[in-house]
Amino acid sequence: MLLSPPRLRAGLALTVAAALTATLLSPYAAPQAFADPSGPQGSDAAARTASRSERDATAALDRARAVVDGRVRGDLTMALRDVATSREALVGADRAAADRLLARPGDSTGDDLIDYSGETIAKPICSTSVCVHYVTTGADAPSLADADADGRPDYVETVLATVGSVRTKYLTAGYRAPRRDGALGGGSNKFDVYLGDIGQGGYYGYCIPDEPNTSHNRDRYDRYSFCGLDNDYAEFATHTPRENLQVTVAHEYFHATQFAYDAFEDGWLLEATAAWIEDEVYDTVNDNLQYLRTSQLTRPTVPLDTFSTSGSTNGFHYGTWSFFRFLTERYPTRKGGLPKLVLDVFRVADGAPGGDDDYSWQAVDRVLRAKGTSGAKMLASYAVANRRASTRYAEGATNHYPSAPLGANKRVSQRTGYSHTFRLDHLATTTVRLTPQSVGSRYRLELKLRLQPTARGSLVRITSASKGGRLTTTTVALNRNGDANKRIGFSSATVSWVEVTLVNGSGRFRCFTQTGTSSCHGDALDQRQPGTLSAKAVR
């Protein structure tokens, strides 16, 4: 978890380098570190693969060290995850540096975040499934106040109870428990949580998948992990210390849960769903509302699967929690008190032995297709809803959700039409509003749409607002080339405006490329798709 404000929790997605091609429904391929170098290229291909792997691993290490040192803003958990999943490609001093980052706080070198060296380590306080580790001296020590005089510091007991409560909620909802670590970190086979003064560096918490890559687990991507939490949350004023602890545990322990399915999964999915579940578990804290400022509610032309830690889209992946809130409000079936749809996504994204191992967008689309729709169609519905977010989400008005901006806002008269040319990236949308100006009752709005083929994700929704405030949304039937002509009512006496939502719902990717930043660590195949919308009033 990162610095506050805003509190960011993700980092640079691991760049992997296998030149594999995958479309929306193709099977998920192994990360490059496990790719088979055999074939006609022989040892030369293996050498090139190894070289790329080392470069990518070094880049992940440099990024993580910069985040830990506070030299760049970024997310701790994903940055450390990227080091953990690429560590085997590092050599020499870089391998040693990675080992220091990934070490547990109680190890001789700490983990460069919490280091118990030179401090008095207390016996961990444990439940039947979780152990909380702490020290009684030094900066990392929590308050040792013990109101009930049971020999267990109140704060440590609160952390244990909070983790236990969250764990129970996730298990009851059907999620897999984090994998057991084989008695690392203190001799127990329980899930380990370490307390330390990470708040002074601006961090709330983090989780690290610390199971090394070996020949024994090359075909499985589930990993065991441990978490670090702040020792008092006194540095953060946005919420109370207890509230900050609660949402941090909900978020970070969900990462540990995710790692039990696939620690190599796309960062945007891991962070978006972790931010989503915070509000499902602790609904009144509302910490994730801050992320809506950088999301498709405010930037619909940014691809939904964007994972960004820099520039104007920094932290965009957190705001994507709103997409999963949108989906779970429309498909509200619950299991154990939590919406089941996200569980379904992780079940098909499962990289453990026997799992389907779909990649992020592939898993989302597959779950939605089983419900009779698709990822692209729900992206279009999401875009339409985001134009009026305060009324289209259960908590939209109460929590002041922002509304997505228009791509264009134009008046159309009986004499003056309008033509809009645009380019849309994959999994992105834009909306054009057309308002009748002195248009007679016998006139209709004629729309001519010239988009890209529907196989590349083109979709169009039209929303018409009557003078009485009634909204009607319809789907335009495009031909296979992405073209359509459509006429709808447009009299100034009866119509307030018409909005045309244009969608690039493409989920086609070339997976595991060297430069990939989209789903499956790949490149989107349908970027910057051109299109034209023409409108005029006709009789």
Automatic annotation (TrEMBL):
GO terms for molecular function: metallopeptidase activity. Residues 33-58, 517-539 are annotated as: Disordered. Residues 1-35 form the signal peptide. Keywords: Hydrolase, Metalloprotease, Protease, Signal. It comes from the Bacteria. NCBIfam families: MXAN_6640_HExxH. This is MXAN_6640 family putative metalloprotease. It comes from Nocardioides plantarum.
